[in-house]
Here is the input.
Amino acid sequence: MKIAVLSLALFAVPLALAQGNYEIQVYGSETQAPRSTMVELHSNYTAVGQKYFIDGVSPTNHAEHETIEITQGLTPWAEVGFYIFTSERSGNGVQWVGDHIRPRVRVPPGWRWPVGVSVSMEMGYQRAFFSADTWTWEIRPIVDKSVGRWYFAVNPALERTWHGPDVNQGVGFSPAVKISYDFTKQISGGVEYYADYGSLTHIASLHDQQQQIFPAIDLNVSPKWEINFGVGVGPTAATDHWIVKGILGRRFDWSDLGRQH
Amino acid sequence: MSDNKNVLLHPHLSVQHEEALSLASRRAFLRRAVLAGTASLIPTALCAQPPRGKPDYSLEIAETEWALSPKKRIRVAAYNGQVPGPLLRLTEGRPVTVSITNRLRHEEVVHWHGQWIPSEVDGSMEEGTPAIAPGASTSIRFTPRPFGLHWYHTHVAAHRDFSLGLYSGQFGVLLVEPRQNPAPWDGEQFLVLRDWEPYFVSSDDGSEMVDYAAASINGRMLGHGEPIQVRPGQRMLFQILNASATQTHWLALPGHRFQVLALDGRPVPTQATVEYLRLGPAERVTALVTMNAPGVWVLGEPRANFRNAGMGIVVEYANRTGEPQHPRDSALRWDYSAFAHDTPATRKPDVTMPLVFTSRFEGHGALDRWMINGKSFPETDPVRLTYGLRYRLQFINRSTDPHPVHLHRHAFELVSLQGRPTSGIMKDVVIVEPNTTTEVDLVADNPGNTLFHCHQQDHMDSGFMDLFRYA
Here is the structure.
């Protein structure tokens, strides 16, 4: 997950995220099945965010971020995702922000581990107008577990800037956590938590950390569709204060024989 | 590999010569003694009898290490140290004694699937068959009936323990031969389909389901068993059992077609020829193939994911070499009514009995709870049968899963499939497709407690069972 940056430079803290609030999602460990493709539209609106240009980076306040994510299953344990980030804000029109690529592998379920485990690597470019750090890299371990109606997931992501002001910051720590409960087969509700604690070697003060909590709902109306909706609150000064997020995903199965009875 | 045994399929079809029986190491473990006693000539002689003398067969249930391939070794509970268990060839109407020793650390029971035998020996604790305690031995005696391809397997619950129940290696082929065998075949081959290394995954519809990392035919993954050796023009009889705990399988042999002679051991009225066979868990197909396409082939799953997991066996014509050609991944078709009479069933039932299958969601991290008429076993209402009456059982599947439902100790006639009338097919397992209704006629002619259940281990463990009791 990549949450918004409220100009950390404003607080003279050497901390920044390369990606803005373009994709707000706690990953589960499952990967796309081979011969299937997931197309997701991430729509995130910052209701209350950064209102000023900071170091030439566009404000996030009242910005609508639309991200197209296309994930192709390669094997039963590997996939690759591709992102197209866009931003729309009054006065700027629709702008291309950048692209990322994200290969991911999982522990095959046949290994019968007690928890689901996968790891992704995401790398790519965002224009300096939207992110001071343009080239970035992230490694994201993913651990999850379903127990009856409860679901738990944790993503202790590590981030590194390849090009930008934070290139000397080292590795940043950005954990994300999700806990949800299945109210029905179709409706699950829970809480998603996203944070950026700054450099692993120089954890930021609470004031300067990014913290966001999203009460969120998942609708499981069909195996072909993925629907997620949430409203996020950012209580720290360094975080966008209100964000509304939505994910609409459609799965395309190119192997209609795979599930035939 | 010839056993020189004759197998009657129906009054006009039989096997005279058997060869290439590739159930691994069966001779090493199959204890075949002289069949003693005079066969009973009437069904009423079928009853539990105290064992006497030396058993005809012995089964030892114990953990064993089994090599699905040189690189894939598993540790499972099995019969006589082999997977599948030894092929048991019995003769219809001739009483047999089987001794069973349980070397496991939990109670076990052996179910004689497809046999019309008393509840006390049928092998279901729900019906009243005594469990075999850990370390204990027992002997059972019964008179095999009816003839045909059947099987024997454990009948204990597994729930989330994949070392138990049908997830284990406790299964084997039971072939009951008729007393006369008038017609010849050139060869007979047994194929036992099986999935291994189960694990829980989220299903497409949101609940947990069981998937598998490996699969085998006759205990070996594709490429690691002995090829089936054939000659051009040979007429091969394939006796096929799907012993999977939960998975339906398809089979195809490129360049060849299957003439289906029997389903679940019962001869079919129309011996239709098909390109694909479909077998739900516990279903059996007896099919004849004329070997008229010389080459090297894979007899296996047409679906690549299952075949890649190991579901296949090589068929090799004499003097042919090369890379085996596997079945193509194309549209699969199966319709029971292709093997039925042309005319619908005419006999009216005495009683019509709806059995509605539904599920209750228990969370994405749990198996669904299954119900028959709104109740899960053992809270289900027992079905009362009266001897001699004809019952029309309406299997109304109001779920998104197919269910291979099985009735112990009886066979039933398919009379309607998804609203289409049919007749003449006798089975003991039938797949009821999602959100459809299948009707079968059952003649209550074998008194005793009779278990009815979905043959998917995860479904029967989650309440998909009912007990039929005779009044």
Summary: Residues 390 and 443 of chain B are 4 Å apart (CA to CA). The domain at 7-177 of chain B is CATH 2.60.40.420 (Immunoglobulin-like). The interface with chain A takes residues 197, 199-202, 204-208, 211-214, 248, 250, 302-303, 305, 329-332, 361-366, 402, 431, 433 of chain B (CB under 8 Å).
